[in-house]
Amino acid sequence: MDKNNNRILPFISDQLYLVVYEKQLVSTMHDAYEKIKKNDDGFGVFIASPSKTADIEQSLVIGAHGARKLVVLVIAMK
């Protein structure tokens, strides 16, 4: 799969499971932006929660643009 195709996964998944190594975590958003700049393609996404939207008829939709459930597994390396 082309690495650019992975960009859409956080937005179309109903449930998103991420596995990260503890050493990849940073303390601040500034540090995170610096890590993104060093990537080959400079692409990164910050996920806070599922989106919520309501149309003109006030029909609430949760997860319209993102996963309804997010699980992050952090692996500690010795």
What is the topology?
Elements: H1 9-12, E1 15-21, H2 29-37, E2 52-54, E3 60-62, E4 69-75
Parallel strand pairs: 1-4
Antiparallel strand pairs: 2-3
Describe the fold and architecture:
- 17% of the residues lie in helices and 26% in strands.
- With 78 residues, it is of the alpha+beta class.
- It has one domain (3-75).
- Strands 1-4 form a two-stranded parallel ribbon. It has a two-stranded antiparallel sheet with strand order 2-3.
- The longest helix has 9 residues, at 29-37.
- The relative contact order is 0.30.
Which features would summarize this protein structure in a list?
78 residues; alpha+beta; two-stranded antiparallel ribbon
Largest sheet, order of strands side by side?
A: 1-4
Question: CA-to-CA gap between the ends?
Answer: 31 Å
N-to-C series of helices and strands: HEHEEE
Tell me, briefly, the overall form: elongated
- Helix/strand structural class: alpha+beta
Q: How many strand segments?
A: 4
State the low-pLDDT regions, or none. Answer: none
Number of helical elements: 2
Fraction of residues in H or I helices:
10-25%
